[in-house]
Amino acid sequence: MGNPLLDISAVVDDDFLQKYDIKLNNAILAEDKHLPMYEEMTSKSNVEYIAGGATQNLIKVAQWMLQIPGATSFIGCIGKDKFGEEMKKDSKNAGVNVQYYEDESTPTGTCAVCVAGGERSLVANLSAANSYKFEHLRKPENWALGASPAFPFLVCIFFEKAKYFYIAGFFLTVSPDSIQLVAEHAAANNKVFTMNLSAPFICEFFKDAQEKVLPYMDYVFGNETEARTFSKVHGWETDDVEEIALKISQWPKASGTYKRITVITQGADPVVVAEDGKVKKFPVILLPKENLLTQPEKEMHLLEDLCHSWFKGSPLMSV
């Protein structure tokens, strides 16, 4: 469950970049001046449409690993428009069971991927992705009778079948009640529930919502900046990433089925993993400059490796 964005990717020229004041090797949120660019990009002969957004990308990778149609599901909000139709088509072609809430009043969230000279720039317009409604989880066609300690009358079909749940922290800004519903279901049914810290502003300005769901997290992901912000807002008075990772892993849990594992990336520095009162560090393999990834891409690949480990039944320390 997360924020779906349709990636609109096309090769553009310098005139296009100057027209919309876009700098290469950058990622920004769209302003009013950027809004016409999405329609203009659709007219380019080399345009590609890809169902994206960090959480949906991860689910598509998990689906590719499993090679079983419909083995994964994704829930989020799109608009009832042509971009929404492209989103549904691409996701279904990837084999993902998508259950989008369609908002008729807001356009589908998009991300312009402007490619020039082997470099790219991202301009995201969240739009409908910000409009997901908790009530969508309660729609009769999405639910079935079941027996669950957390939900004595209703159990979502997709949640009932799922064994692992992943939600990005960004979704705390959209529908924290939906996250709480999934988290409580996972705890009541001995399933794995995972989230990431996503961004410093999530830790700072959505502290209460994050704290409410943290006891249900079996895995917590983040980077060093997010971890230090988390420490600061909780008054821990330490910038030591290993100590912070350990403290997060020891935060009280709602269920004793799994011990919490905290994974903190640090760019080119070793990845910090806190588990069962111990901290381990894993070195990062340095890549040539032309193959370097952005921080979000690094975290995404780490999550992909973890998914692969789960599917094989391997312990985390072998990832």
Describe this structure as you would to a colleague.
The structure is a single chain. The protein is an alpha/beta fold. The chain has eleven helices and 15 strands. The strands form four sheets. It has a six-stranded mixed sheet with strand order 10-11-12-13-14-15, sandwiched between helices. It has a five-stranded mixed sheet with strand order 2-7-6-1-3. Helix 3 runs parallel beside helix 11 (295-312). The radius of gyration is 20 Å and the shape is globular.
Which features characterize this protein?
319 residues, alpha/beta, 6-stranded mixed sheet, 5-stranded mixed sheet, 15 strands, globular
Beta strand %:
25-35%
What is the count of DSSP helices, taking H or I runs of 4+ residues? Answer: 11
| Shape verdict | globular
Ends apart, CA distance between termini: 24 Å
The count of DSSP E runs of length 2 or more, i.e. the number of strands, is 15
Q: Give me the side-by-side strand order of the main sheet.
A: 10-11-12-13-14-15
Q: Roughly how much helix do the residues carry, as a percent range? A: 25-40%
**Radius of gyration from the alpha-carbon trace, in angstroms:** 20 Å
User: Which stretches are low in confidence, meaning pLDDT under 50 for 5 or more residues running?
Assistant: 143-155, 292-298
Largest sheet: 6 strands, mixed
Q: What integer is the average pLDDT? A: 85
Report the structural category.
Answer: alpha/beta
The run of helices and strands is: EHEHEHEHEEEEEHEHEHHEHHEEEH
